[in-house]
Design brief:
Layout: E1 4-9, H1 16-30, E2 37-42, H2 45-54, E3 60-64, H3 81-86, E4 91-94, H4 97-102, H5 107-120, E5 123-128, H6 132-136, H7 140-152, H8 157-160, E6 164-167, H9 181-199, H10 201-206, E7 209-212, H11 220-224, E8 231-234, H12 241-250
Parallel strand pairs: 1-2, 1-8, 2-3, 3-4, 4-5, 5-6, 6-7, 7-8
Helix pairs in contact: 1-2, 1-12, 5-7, 7-9
The structure holds 2-phosphoglycolic acid.
2-phosphoglycolic acid (PGA) binds near residues 173, 214, 233 and 236.
């Protein structure tokens, strides 16, 4: 059985003081919540140390939104996996469509980051998904399967089993337009069958595959109830304590 993971992706939101206020309130709300859901908050680098400290020994794990693949050295402005692990970060979002499109991240770069994250003990949340043009041209399966193959290239099955995949159709991100549960389930199913081809049925059956794209308190339960959807990667709606809490409570 895959673990259900509800992960916030704060993006470039929340100053340190805002993050501090959020986590204080959020911790109280989800404390003792026992529905088997792993809660993750992926936040800007500047807030990570504080968040990790404040959530130690709670049911909340902390993630970064990016990292660089090199171990250390002359890479001005970059953050390494070891720096993240050292401050108590456990997850890292890799290959988000905003990184791919705005910052030009290639499949090859994302693959290198996935490998380094795993080598250092971080759990990668690997994002894949098509844009509207590609969906209209009936290319969802091609795009999603190719992105999964590229991100997992060269990983052993033990390594692959540690990864989380988030299917995020670009046309649904931050737009208020949500994939229907059928569309989301179908694409998450494509991710699962690609993993099955690569690593066998057992690995694929246990893989956590999230949906992301305008998920909120009103649609989370219906989406996550589908066979291939094991949680969500949530942007806008995860910036509000009550809304994010409601989403976590509504899924099993
Ligand atoms: P959204 O973002 O929930 O605001 O659509 C999701 C994401 O980009 O991960």
């Amino acid at each position: 059985m895959p673990k259900t993971i509800m992960a916030a992706n704060w993006k470039m939101n929340m100053t340190n003081s805002e993050a501090k206020a959020f986590i204080k309130e959020f911790k109280e709300k989800v404390e003792g919540l026992d529905n088997g859901v792993q809660i993750v908050i992926c936040a800007p680098f500047t807030a990570l140390a504080k968040l990790a400290k404040k959530t130690r020994e709670t049911n909340i794990a902390i993630g970064a939104e990016n990292m660089y693949f090199e171990e250390k050295g002359a890479y001005t402005g970059e953050i390494s996996a070891a720096m993240l692990v050292d401050i108590g970060v456990q997850y890292v979002i890799l290959g988000h469509s905003e990184r791919r499109t705005i910052f030009g991240e290639s499949d090859e770069l994302i693959n290198k980051k996935v490998k380094q994250a795993l080598n250092t003990g971080l759990t990668p949340i690997i994002c894949v998904g098509e844009n509207l043009e590609e969906r209209k041209a009936d290319k969802v399966a091609d795009i999603v399967c190719n992105q999964v193959r590229a991100a997992f290239a060269g990983l052993t099955s033990d390594e692959a089993a540690k990864c989380v995949v988030a299917y995020e159709p670009i046309w649904a991100i931050g737009t208020g337009e949500v994939a229907t549960p059928e569309q989301a389930n179908e694409a998450c199913g494509m991710v699962r069958s690609t993993l099955s081809e690569l690593y066998g049925a057992e690995m694929a059956e246990n893989a956590t595959i999230q949906y992301g794209g305008s998920m909120n308190g009103s649609n989370a339960a219906e989406l996550v109830a589908r066979e291939h959807i094991n949680g969500g990667l949530i942007g806008g709606a995860a910036l509000k304590v009550d809304e994010f809490t409601k989403m976590i409570e509504s899924v099993k």
